Amino acid sequence: MKAFSYQRAGSPAEAAAIVGRTQGARFIAGGTNLLDLMKLQIETPTHLVDVNHLGLDRIEATTEGGLRIGALVRNTDLAADGRVRKDYALLSRALVAGASGQLRNKATTAGNLLQRTRCPYFYDTNQPCNKRSPGSGCAAIGGVNRGLGVIGTSEACIATHPSDMAVAMRALDAVVETVRADGTARAIPIAEFHTLPGDTPNVENPLAPGELITAVTLPRPVGGTHIYHKVRDRASYAFALVSVGAILQKDGTGRVAFGGVAPRPWRVEAAEAEMPRGARAVAAAVLAGATPTEQNRFKLVLAERTLAAAIAEARG
Amino acid sequence: MKFDTPAGTNPIDQLKVIGKPTPRIDGPLKTTGSAPYAYEHHDAPDPAYGFILGSAIAKGRLTGMDLRDASAAPGVLAIVTAENAGKLGKGNFNTAKLLGGPEIEHYHQAVAIVVAETFEQARAAAALIRVDYARDKGRYDLAAAKDGAGKPPEGGFNGPADSGHGDFAGAFAAAPVQLDATYTTPDHAHAMMEPHATIAAWDGDRLDLWTANQMIAWSVGDMAKTLGIPREKVRMRSPFIGGGFGGKLFIRADAVLAALGARAANRAVKVALPRPFMFNNTPHRPATIQRIRLGATRDGKLVAIGHESWSGDLPGGGPETATGQTKLLYAGANRMTAMRLAVLDLPEGNAMRAPGEAPGMMALEIAIDEMAEKLGLDPVAFRVLNDTQVDPENPGRPYSQRQLNQCLQTGAEKFGWARRAKPGSVRDGRWLVGMGVAAAFRNNINMKSAARVRLDARGIVTVETDMTDIGTGTYTILAQTAAEMMGLPLDKVVVRLGDSSFPVSAGSGGQWGANSATAGVYAACVKLREAVAQKLGFNSADAVFAGGKVKSGKRSVPLAEAAKGGELVAEDAMEYGDLARKYQQSTFGAHFVEVGVDAATAEIRIRRMLAVCAAGRILNPVSARSQVIGAMTMGAGAALMEELAVDKRFGFFVNHDLAGYEVPVHADIPHQDVIFLAEADPTTSPMKAKGVGELGICGVGAAVANAIHNATGMRVRDYPITLDKLLAGMPELA
């Protein structure tokens, strides 16, 4: 860990302004990912701006009939919120499928969206990694990559996005609200929030320097049966090999996003037209063009079968 | 005291304290955070902090090290590398050097230690060391190296590379029913909670080490040899250890570099290995490839048993002795075993809980299940049918005790084995359900062990020995032993462990600790009883020690009286004759496992586990059960998830943290039972006990594998059994 300075910001706009103008500055919220990365010198901020205590920890109804979730709402609180459990059960279920109780108590809504990949090569600073050290190469390609991405990847990076919560947010059509360094606000649909690696896997989202997530909003509830099925090698406290976040309606229609397969929560809206025809048709459309490795090819079959199980469960 | 004839009746047989379920006496210290672990001793004044830099390559050499920025970094007191460390020897028990350079022998081999005022300063400065490497081509793939493997060196714990009896080749070829299958087990990490950690402080030419170590005397010797100083100058203390599993049998880089750093900085130095180092810097259980051939008659008698195993290690290293149990476990007139060792440039292999038998039984006990299936026999009945009460390679040599059949039959009854159905036929909602069984087998080893006992005027008996408690319950069973011998309640006994200034014990390894170390305390207590009797004017043969008193005839005197004129001190060791050669001494068990396999995703979840063990006298059923359920959990990990993933290009274990190297969590282990069969083995020691801490892991993996087969009809021979290996055989979905 490199020595760094620390300050508390007085408001979201002030936090954005400070980080925007300070070379090497980063926001810190729950710190469940950033501090680990700093200890390993994968992240080396010189200045931390604390965005806790800014009043961003509330969940409120929106005038459109949805929910506005403050960026600093802890994962535990979000999962336990009565409105979330009733109308957005997928989100609640995805949250409790992730991490551990202790981590969920600290981890925040915005931080969860911004967490970095768990690719083991990203975590080992002796190894080449285009995400950590642009241009150095990708050791995961041709290496140990059973847990890594099968679609949306590139020749520069095959890392996955590790979040469970983000898979639910993607299926729920969440919108990310931010304030920029100049004080202006904007809203970014979740579909556009996580960017694909291409040849710049170090760029993971469209946020500008200093741009601070202030909230995530959910549109009106869509009803249906909400299922989050996370498949992993052990029963708890592991990242997904494949996860399925599905909202299934009685008439056989529905929407689905997949975790564990891609650099971002993977949803193909056009494929959802196939939903009444079953998992095989949906999976074929969602995963068309996949480029698995020898070690992670099983994820294609697993994704289809996990979706099939979800559909069967929804039908009872 | 020499133990060379089977034990008769002795004070331990009273079983007033021994054999009683006894919560560990060090429990309150641990639950209140007041048991000082290696990194937590405050005896060392004003310590500085060391951070170790590991090699970024697996094989090659350092071509340059630029220390200038690191040396100039805030707080830095000293940097030690192979270049400025002075001449270092190598210990008897480590294969690669603990401070590497210029030659690099494996990934994360230590190449420098930075000592600074704070931990954070040391870590930050270590990152400023610029190292240039010349990378050599290494050998990292066991399967590729297998054909070039040779006979491993014999001796030590290895045993002979080859063994045989009768005509294996002829009998196997002629057998009406044959099995010829190959199994693989991956490299495993100890993954204990407490990382290797040491505080080192010099006082002139004397070195004090507070460390986490299972074998104090071995490690003092290796420390002295590495540093080139007399062993009398080294004092090592390791009173509490946060798990070892074989990973702390020997000194590692933390101890050597803390000592070198302390010398260079002229300060006490604290070093803990960071978590990633536990996987590539310290030893691991080596991967194996095992070929097993079984030949049987149609009525289920084994006539040919062959087991070959290949493993790899650094040059000068040793094999994983995965064939050992196959020499002994089942009857069969014609047999062969062979171990071969390939040279690999991965981090060094060494002992991990039940070395040899743990991976060996993972393979053998699937093979037995497969053969039972071929024969159309129940796997419990097949094992019972092929029981032996003698060493099959030396039929004139009997087992001292062998209740394998009773373990299997008791377990079958308690587990509801009769409900087991044919493979792939039981469904519970989304789960395919199956049951599996495997034998458990681990040899018993007795090691010389000494202790000192003191009786003071308050009537308190204090036990001192360099024995270690690696979380196993050693403090408690040694206290029970002294209490039983001296006729005292447990709270009148104090136990002090893990200090090289105490008599040399067996140490903790190879499940020899419990029987050996208690036998050492027994020997010392026999001497103390004699001293007490003499002091109080009793004939020691007639004196009865009970209720805090010494009695003979009508005379009864408080034990404390004997120390009125000054503390009484007795010291002795238990040494062993040739009973272990006359009798085959082993421990036995049976593991029963029920699993569910998700019919859609092939996720595997254990539903319940049972172990039935026959392992000599159980000194403390509470800590013995704790050992066995821990071992069963570790076995479940080996079956389902544990694998050090090898990068075969760069030569290292990629998943080098506890996020990537998965071990079972609570949710993976819903229900465990342990049953101990009544047993006392007079050939092992006056305690009549054996080891149990490693027995519990042996066979678990195969029981899980066999249960998965019973659930799904699929036979997976490559561990760990993960869902991707089952998906192709899962039922078609609607």
UniProtKB/TrEMBL annotation, chain A:
Transmembrane residues, as ranges?
none
One of the Pfam families matching this protein, by short name: FAD_binding_5
SUPFAM superfamilies on file:
CO dehydrogenase flavoprotein C-terminal domain-like, FAD-binding/transporter-associated domain-like
**Which molecular-function annotation in GO is an example for this chain?**
xanthine dehydrogenase activity
The EC designation for this entry is: 1.17.1.4
Record keywords, A-Z: FAD, Flavoprotein, Oxidoreductase
Q: Where is the FAD-binding PCMH-type domain?
A: 1-223
Tell me the superkingdom of the source.
Answer: Bacteria
Residues annotated as coiled-coil are none
Tell me the PANTHER family matching this sequence.
Answer: ALDEHYDE OXIDOREDUCTASE FAD-BINDING SUBUNIT PAOB, XANTHINE DEHYDROGENASE SUBUNIT C-RELATED
Name-wise, this protein is Xanthine dehydrogenase YagS FAD-binding subunit
- To which species is this protein native? Sphingomonas leidyi
Automatic annotation (TrEMBL), chain B:
One Gene Ontology molecular-function label:
iron ion binding
Species this chain originates from: Sphingomonas leidyi
Q: Which Gene3D superfamilies match?
A: Aldehyde oxidase/xanthine dehydrogenase, a/b hammerhead (3.90.1170.50), Aldehyde oxidase/xanthine dehydrogenase, molybdopterin binding domain (3.30.365.10)
Record bears the keyword Oxidoreductase = yes
**Entries under Pfam families matching the protein:** Ald_Xan_dh_C (PF01315), MoCoBD_1 (PF02738), MoCoBD_2 (PF20256)
Q: Which SMART domains match?
A: Ald_Xan_dh_C (SM01008)
Limits of the Aldehyde oxidase/xanthine dehydrogenase a/b hammerhead domain: 32-137
Q: What is this protein called?
A: Xanthine dehydrogenase YagR molybdenum-binding subunit
State its Enzyme Commission number(s): 1.17.1.4
Q: Which InterPro entries match?
A: Ald_Oxase/Xan_DH_a/b, Ald_Oxase/Xan_DH_a/b_sf, Ald_Oxase/xanthine_DH-like, AldOxase/xan_DH_MoCoBD1, AldOxase/xan_DH_MoCoBD2, AldOxase/xan_DH_Mopterin-bd_sf, PaoC-like
| EC main group | oxidoreductase
Alphabetically ordered keywords of this record: Oxidoreductase
